[in-house]
From TrEMBL:
This is leucine--tRNA ligase. NCBIfam families: leuS_arch (TIGR00395). Keywords: Aminoacyl-tRNA synthetase, ATP-binding, Ligase, Metal-binding, Nucleotide-binding, Protein biosynthesis, Zinc. Residues 908-1026 form the Methionyl/Valyl/Leucyl/Isoleucyl-tRNA synthetase anticodon-binding domain. Residues 12-25, 1039-1050 have a biased composition (Low complexity). Its EC number is 6.1.1.4. Belongs to the class-I aminoacyl-tRNA synthetase family. It comes from the Eukaryota. Residues 1-25, 155-175, 1030-1050 are annotated as: Disordered. InterPro entries: aa-tRNA-synth_I_CS, aa-tRNA-synth_Ia, Leu-tRNA-synth_Ia_arc/euk, M/V/L/I-tRNA-synth_anticd-bd, Rossmann-like_a/b/a_fold, tRNA-synt_1_cat_dom, tRNAsynth_Ia_anticodon-bd, Val/Leu/Ile-tRNA-synth_edit.
Length: 1200
């Protein structure tokens, strides 16, 4: 196939990549896009990425000592061989939209090493799948249904209200003027219709997405299309979607859960769970619009009874409060038990209550509450573990009607009759309480339009609650009062804060402020002195070193000035809690003398048993479901996986530090350790969404779905099938009915006995088994760091359970990365920097996009995709293509024959780039790999062109350079590499199947190369300084500098002769320093290079030779040592510490004399030893010379 040609192919063509040419087109980018299309057609024809055991192009096993670089391989039984394979994966993306740059960046962190290890001779499996399980797709589809239905109703209303407009009903799938009403109904959020339109869905297709199945038909093929266009080296035969839409994958997931159940890892019970109110089921991380990683926070809610008999009816706010009560409750206040309910984390401190606090400007609700919690409790945990499957199923069946157990729906009349208890609290906390059996709910009609709400008799401001007389449980004061606190948040707890000034610095400082400014608060809020002044902190806990009034003591010691003294107050709070909880001893009550850590649970139990408190949960932070509803915590009956079980957790922790697992960064390992320390039971069942049913609930009255993060933990073992939907059998002709539990046991658990009563032949069974046995374990999984908190940790747990005795099958490495920014800003459609993969490829080309991915960063910090990098890559790639074509068409004047010294230096630098690129790819440091394989390699070629000057470049070396360029850049920019390799150079085979280049590398030759070019740079700086000095020093001001430059240009031609001084050895002080430095063991750097240990300066200072020096000598010694160990060691390796260079520096300069003359624009140049001054030189220039750092003297006339 001939390469495309146009006028833009010519080397002289110019124009910015991102700017259109005069004809209005983006010629350079468009040519790259055409090249990519041609290359992808070639790959589709040759199928280089389709791999399977028995048809591998490379040896299946290799000797351990001769294995190419990469992840630790697994030994094969029967000999000292290792699997010659690399198996990498990426968490399948969710199919509720097109793939964007965030997906592309992370998946390229598997794509790059997949292509690299193929070049290193490994068999590479890089499969891909698409995730559809869970709530989001169905929630969005149902939301769209509601919007369309709402639109129909609105149009009917408009038609009735506007009799003069007699027109037929418009298409209910087309939205027009009803937008504002829909926005109001959805709380100001975008409508689902608008969201779909923003995804680029045609207007006439949006209504189709009201059917959840349409999402599965629409997005997966488009995501595959975009990844093919990106140039991924994926074996697409193995692609699949999840959910029972694919019966093959559903069978695999059912098998996985049967294994977990048999291993005792799945139980049934009631647990506090963050749920979506519309779906009445657990809302896991992937089901959330906001609040990922947030779990339930447990409180003790203390009931502070309002002493209605003592309410001051002469106080106007209280009179209004009672008036509203009579209006809405239809009974005297004394007929109900009314409580201000305060959430606390320290129930053991309730002995010290002096008052409670409310937010004066806050809005509180007066809610009907049950006298006793109606949530069903669980059997003891030990009893649960002993339950048989039948007993678990019976428990699940008893709790099958989730809506009935979660929502206690009552009419207002029934609730008033049945509820003798009233809670005053924030609206947010009341909503959570209602789903924990503490309050009834009131139906608001059509559930699809408006969800039930707790029975709120009326709302009151915090000001109306001030001064209410309260009975505080366990307090030594018979009556306490509600007082104001301005720092209360209604988004945390109940909005009511019980006050214990003895042990809470916040409470103490606020109470003291009220006392000190009582006259002010009496006027502004109506506070009375008798509500505030008689109350003093109560001694309840003895804290060593702080006494029994911990908070007042700390506030005094730290000098806390008031509520606004935030920093000191925070310090006091932290220390009071830490020391009080861990060192404190209870000094009052029946548990006097007990440690606070122990007394906390005892006092809490006492409060709960006496009905003085209740257990309350809420999300740690705000959580919003995909439906747009704010989530609550419910006591949810559910199936759950027992993550965190001691033995199971220990096995995972041991694997992480065993040496068989590579986290690829210490920070990632630390994050895994952190997650393992707190991760506990995980709800794995759902009643709403898409997915696969739990196998033991299928056929029951209450079949439940497997949650989306739970069905995606070992699917890396599954990658196979006929098509992504499982509609047709694969090459072995298997049907879903063939995939029995025994079938999977034989393949994945490597059972000795093949399954009985199966239609699958033993040959096919063994073929499938061989695939799993060879490719497993997974060598690398790449992911965003957010999945450490769920999916990746679940993956480790599941492997440890299913393959309990086969740690050799557990994952070998996870590489995590941060989120992706675009031009240092978070991706957002509102700022115009949100790019899908499709958009980025069209705008920049696939290879330029991939180059920007590689350059974006390689750590857990956020990566930065820079559009300027992608734009400039277009130009570089285009010019590289032109150079290759000019070479192939013999348009470049080149030299043949024996290789010169300059040729050998260049060939060595190519070898250095190959070595550096390999180190970057193997360490997953792709910015370094890109630098070596693209930028540095091109820079070496340009320097070589300068070095040979008029001699021209050598044809053999430029050919080598082009071939090396095509191969080592191909993991990152495969299209242009394949194009140069196959279309331009017409090499045999594909670049995807090429061998990694093996070029010799000599550190001595590299040092020669570095000396030459660093000398030229230094010589130029030296000449500029001489000209500046001659012109009277550096001038200030822009105009003066321009005049100086003109003067220098006039003088420059006069300095046409030079003497270069070369030092054979360092001066005595420097030799002493080098002798000491040679004794310091070097360490291996991140790229495999040798570098100085962090404490080398301490060793140097302690050396006897250095200690004997005077002050000035020590200063010089330290400066020289720092330079050699940091700069020179990095540039030259350990040879930087040698006392002499391993070659003649004068001979090097003499050999390349013509290069120096040309580079410095000289007529003559002379080389001398530093101890042999030139008669024409009266400067101290030669004293500045040292090994590898020659000095120069410029003159207007010849120096000899």
């Amino acid at each position: 196939m001939a390469p495309p040609t146009s006028s833009e192919d010519k080397p002289g063509a110019t124009g910015a990549a991102g700017a259109p040419s005069a004809g209005g087109s983006f010629v350079r980018r468009d040519q790259l896009l055409q090249i990519e299309e041609d290359v992808q057609k070639l790959w589709a024809q040759e199928k280089p990425y389709e791999v399977e055991v028995g048809r591998l192009k490379r040896p299946e096993f290799v000797p351990a000592s001769g294995a190419p670089g990469g992840p630790a391989a697994t030994g094969a039984p029967g000999g000292p061989l290792v699997k010659n394979k690399f198996f990498c994966t990426f968490p399948y993306p969710y199919m509720n939209g097109l793939l964007h740059l965030g997906h592309g960046y992370t998946l390229c962190r598997a794509e790059f090493p997949a292509r690299y290890f193929r070049l290193r001779g490994k068999n590479v499996l890089w499969p891909f799948a698409l995730h559809c399980t869970g709530m989001p797709i169905l929630a969005c589809a149902d939301k769209l249904k509601r919007e369309i239905e709402m639109k129909k109703k609105q149009e009917l209303q408009d038609k009735k209200a506007t009799a003069e407009e007699e027109q037929g009903p418009s298409d209910p799938t087309k939205f027009t003027s009803a937008k504002s009403k829909l926005v109001a109904k959805t709380g100001g959020l975008k409508t689902q219709w608008e969201i779909m339109a923003s995804l680029g869905i045609p207007e006439d297709k949006i209504a189709c997405f009201a059917d959840a199945n349409y999402w599965l038909d629409y997005f997966p093929p488009r995501c595959k299309r975009d990844l093919v266009r990106l140039g991924t080296a994926v074996d697409w035969r193995r692609c699949f979607i999840t959910t029972d839409r694919n019966p093959y994958y559903a069978a695999f997931v059912r098998w996985q859960f049967l294994k977990l159940l048999a291993a005792g890892k799945i139980s049934f019970g009631t647990r506090p769970t963050v749920i979506g109110r519309r779906e009445l089921q657990a809302c896991a991380d992937h089901d959330r619009m906001a609040g990922e990683g947030v779990g339930p926070q447990e409180y003790t809610v203390v009931k502070l009874r309002v002493k209605t008999e003592e309410v001051d009816v002469g106080f106007e706010p209280h009179a209004l409060l009672l008036q509203q009560w009579q209006q809405h409750a239809n009974c005297p206040a004394a007929a109900k038990q009314i409580f201000l309910v305060a959430a606390t984390l320290r129930p053991e401190t309730m002995y010290g209550q002096t008052n409670c606090y409310v937010l004066p400007e806050g809005e509180y609700g007066v809610y009907l509450a049950f006298d006793k919690c109606r949530a069903k409790s669980d059997p003891e945990q030990q009893q649960q573990q002993q339950q048989t499957l039948q007993e678990k199923l019976a428990a699940a069946a008893a709790a099958s009607k989730a809506a009935d157990t979660l929502e206690h729906i009552m009419t207002r009349e029934d609730a008033l009759a049945e509820c003798n208890t009233v809670f005053i609290c924030s609206h947010r906390s009341a909503l959570n309480m209602a789903y924990q059996g503490l309050m009834p709910l009131e139906s608001m009609g059509d559930r699809s339009q408006e969800l039930p709400r707790p029975h709120c008799l009326f709302s009151v401001s915090g000001k109306m609650l001030l001064g209410l007389p309260l009975s505080a449980p366990l307090s030594v004061y018979q009556t306490v009062y509600a007082l104001p606190m301005q720092t209360i948040s209604l988004d945390k707890g109940t909005g009511v804060v019980t006050s214990v000034p003895s042990d809470s610095p916040d409470d103490f400082i606020n109470l003291e402020t009220l006392k000190n400014k009582i006259e002010f608060f009496a006027k502004s809020l109506g506070l009375k002195k008798e509500w505030v002044l008689p109350f003093s902190p109560v001694e309840i806990i003895e804290v060593p070193g702080l006494g029994r009034l911990c908070a007042p003591t700390l506030c005094s010691q730290l000098g806390v000035g008031g509520p606004k003294d935030a920093a000191k107050l925070q310090q006091a709070k932290e220390e009071a809690y830490r020391r009080g909880f861990y060192e404190g001893v209870l000094a009052v009550g029946p548990f006097e003398g007990r440690k606070v850590q122990e007394a906390k649970q005892l006092v809490r139990q006492q409060l709960l048993q006496q009905g003085l408190a209740c257990v309350y949960f809420e999300p740690e932070k705000k959580v919003v479901a995909r439906s747009g509803d704010e989530c609550v915590v419910a006591l949810l009956p559910q199936w759950f996986i027992s993550y965190g079980e001691a033995e199971w957790r220990a096995a995972v922790e041991a694997h992480l530090t065993s040496g068989h697992f590579d986290p690829h960064s210490p920070q990632t390992l630390h994050q895994f350790s952190f997650v393992l320390s707190w991760l506990k039971e995980w709800a794995c069942s759902r009643s709403y969404g898409l997915g696969t049913f739990l196998p033991w609930t299928t056929g029951t009255d209450a079949p439940v779905l497997i949650e989306s993060l739970s069905d995606s933990t070992i699917y890396m073992a599954y990658y196979t099938g006929g098509d992504i939907y499982g509609d047709t059998p694969g090459p072995l002709g298997l049907t879903p009915a063939d995939l029995t539990e025994q079938f999977f046991d034989y393949i994945f658990l490597l059972r000795d006995e093949p399954p009985k009563d199966t239609k699958v032949s033993l040959e096919n069974l063994n073929r499938l088994r061989a695939e799993f046995s060879y490719w497993y374990p997974m060598d690398l999984r790449v992911s965003g760091k957010d999945l450490i908190f769920n999916h990746l940790t679940f993956c480790l747990y599941s492997h440890a359970a299913i393959w309990k005795d086969r740690e050799d099958l557990w994952p070998r490495g996870f590489a995590c990365n941060g989120m992706v920014l675009v031009d240092a800003e978070k991706m957002s459609k509102s700022t115009g920097n949100f790019l899908t993969l499709e958009e980025s490829i069209k705008q920049f080309s696939a290879d330029a996009t991939r180059i920007a991915f590689a350059d974006a960063g390689d750590s857990l910090d956020d990566a930065n995709f820079q559009r300027e990098t992608a734009n400039s890559a277009i130009t570089r790639l285009f010019l590289l293509k032109n150079l290759a074509m000019d070479f192939a068409e013999q348009k470049i004047e080149l030299r043949e024959g024996p290789l010169t010294a300059a040729d050998l230096l260049f060939r060595n630098e190519i070898g250095l780039c190959v070595k550096a690129a390999a180190a970057g790819y193997e360490d997953l440091q792709f910015r370094e790999a890109l630098k070596a394989s693209f930028y540095e390699l091109a820079n070496k070629r340009d320097l070589y062109r300068q070095l040979v000057d008029k001699d021209k470049m050598h044809k053999e070396l430029l050919s080598t350079w082009l071939e090396v360029q095509a191969v080592i850049l191909s993991p990152i920019a495969p299209h242009i590499s394949e194009y140069i390799w196959s279309f331009v150079l017409k090499k045999k085979g594909l670049v995807a199947d090429a061998d990694w280049p093996e070029l010799p590398y000599d550190a001595v030759l590299h040092r020669k190369f570095e000396i030459l070019f660093s000398a030229v740079e230094e010589f130029r700086r030296c000449r500029d300084k001489m000209l500046q000095a001659a012109a009277g020093g550096r001038k200030k001001g822009k105009q003066q500098q321009q005049q100086q430059q003109q003067q220098q240009q006039q003088q420059a031609p006069q300095l046409t002769h030079a003497v270069v001084y070369v030092a054979k050895e360092y001066n005595p002080l420097q030799q002493q320093v080098l002798t000491v430095l040679q004794r310091i063991p070097l360490v291996k750097g991140p790229q495999g290079e040798m570098e100085a240990p962090p404490d080398f300066m301490d060793y140097l200072k302690g050396a006897p030779e250095i200690q004997e020096m005077d002050k000035n000598q020590k200063k010089d010694a330290m400066a020289f040592a720092s330079y050699q160990m940091r700069d020179e060691l990095k540039a030259c390796g350990p040879s930087a510490l040698n006392l002499r260079l391993p070659f003649s520096e004068i001979e090097l300069l003499e050999t390349h004399k013509q290069f120096l003359l040309s580079a410095l624009d000289l007529k003559s140049i002379e080389f001398r030893n530093a101890d042999d001054p030139s008669p024409a030189d009266n400067s101290n220039c030669r004293a500045q010379a040292k090994p590898a750092k020659p000095s120069i003297f410029f003159a207007a006339a010849a120096c000899s």
